[in-house]
Write a structure and sequence with these properties.
2 domains; 381 residues; globular; alpha+beta; disordered C terminus; 21 strands; 4-stranded mixed β-sheet; UDP-n-acetylglucosamine1-carboxyvinyl-transferase, Chain; binds shikimate-3-phosphate; 27% strand
Length: 381
């Protein structure tokens, strides 16, 4: 990492961002159920991803790290082995929801748990569609953790209209779809990230997907692959905004994931007047990547509408910060899904902005929040 800053000189340099978290979970899971050994490079070694990795090991998969790459010996869709111990997913909604889909098609029982925050998060959203497919999955009486999955005689493909925009829910259904009889079709109201679809395609699944519709046809196996994980766009977001709002900055982020379902923040920031250039387009597997150059910029306020939200969900907090450096009022509509993340991110951001004396309020209706930029006289050059 070559990034340096002196307060007056801004941020300068080039950085390589660690691997994408969403793709890292999917790479480990897909490799574990493929036939053969897959090599994964640039895996994000965060606690969330390591919990998924450890769960897969607990389920009998050999995963070895050698020279910065991970080698995963896949055992086929139904080749996982029963774990005598509970499977622990820490803080990770992605890990637990994706694995619930996959464990629903195994011929053994599983018990899935997480930390205090994950234990409070809504699981009804996966229990309902997986049960419709014939899975035997249940949670607490509040539909939270622990999740208990017992083997089912038959899993059927479904036609499912998603009530919430969620890639985790869509992916849980797709993983269960790998063991289902018949096609699995998912229709979404808003576009959510499509990393599972792209990874399934890369591993050889019979899958078609467009912005709001995904169909998985009966697939008998995945073929092992070498996977290079793109830099994490959500982690990049913090550097992008830092460079925009600090004077005299000019930074480049290398090999960042540019999946269209993840990068709405870039277009929002460009609309706001951000000097952002996307260079050296390429791809890792089915995932597009590029370098991003960012220079200090004078920002205008932004308007976020409900359709923007799934594509911006993890970047909304940092977009709040960018909007604090824009002259005028920025509006964020229908962002209540932020309350159901690892923490109530809407409350956390409001508390932080209040402490910094930046006006923000919910407009009676919980779905609207307004951040009023108070830092109006900036001298960005
Ligand atoms: C993720 C999907 C999103 C996102 C989360 C990662 C994924 O959650 O907020 O950080 O990897 O599928 P939802 O599916 O709940 O929207």
């Amino acid at each position: 990492m070559k990034l340096f800053s002196k307060f007056t000189e801004g941020l300068h340099g080039e950085i390589k961002i660690p691997g994408d978290k969403s793709i890292s979970h999917r790479a480990l899971i897909c490799a574990s159920i493929s036939d053969g050994t897959s090599k994964i490079s640039n895996l994000q070694e965060s606690e969330d991803v390591i919990n998924t990795l450890n769960s897969l090991k607990q389920l009998g998969i050999s995963i070895v790290k050698e020279n910065e790459s991970y080698y995963v010996e896949g055992q086929g869709f139904k080749g996982l082995k029963e774990s005598k111990k509970q499977l622990y997913f820490g803080n990770s909604g992605t890990g637990i929801r994706l694995m619930s889909g996959l464990l629903s098609i195994q011929n053994f029982s599983s018990n899935l748990i997480g930390d205090e925050s994950l234990s409070k998060r809504p699981m009804r959203r996966i229990i309902e569609p997986l049960s419709k497919m014939g899975a035997n999955i249940s949670g607490s009486n509040k539909d939270t953790l622990p999740l208990q999955i017992i083997p089912s005689q038959k899993i059927r493909g479904i036609n499912y209209k998603m009530p919430v925009a969620s890639a985790q829910v869509k992916s849980a259904i797709l993983f269960a779809g790998l063991g289902a009889q018949g096609d699995t079709k998912i229709i979404e109201k808003s576009v959510s990230r499509d990393h599972t679809e792209r990874m399934f395609e890369y591993f050889g699944a019979s899958i078609t997907y467009s912005e709001k519709e995904t169909t998985l046809k009966e697939t008998d196996k995945f073929i092992s692959q070498n996977i290079e994980i793109p830099g994490d766009f959500s982690s990049s977001a913090f550097f992008i905004v830092a460079a925009l709002i600090s004077k005299n900055s000019d930074i480049t982020l290398k090999q960042v994931g540019m999946n269209p379902s993840r990068i709405a923040l870039l277009s929002k920031l460009v609309e706001m007047g951000g000097d952002i250039k996307v260079l050296n387009h390429s791809s890792f597997g089915k995932e597009p990547i590029a370098d991003i150059n960012i220079k200090s910029s004078v920002l205008n306020p932004c308007e976020v509408t409900s359709g923007d939200v799934p594509n911006l969900i993890d970047e909304l907090p940092i977009l709040f910060i960018a909007s604090c450096f824009a002259e005028g009022i920025s509006n964020f509509n229908e962002i209540e899904e932020l309350r159901h993340k690892e923490s109530d991110r809407l409350k956390a951001m409001q508390d932080g902005l209040d402490k910094m004396k930046i006006k923000n309020f919910l407009d009676g209706n919980v779905f609207v929040s307004k951040v009023w930029a108070m830092i109006t006289q900036r001298q960005i050059s």
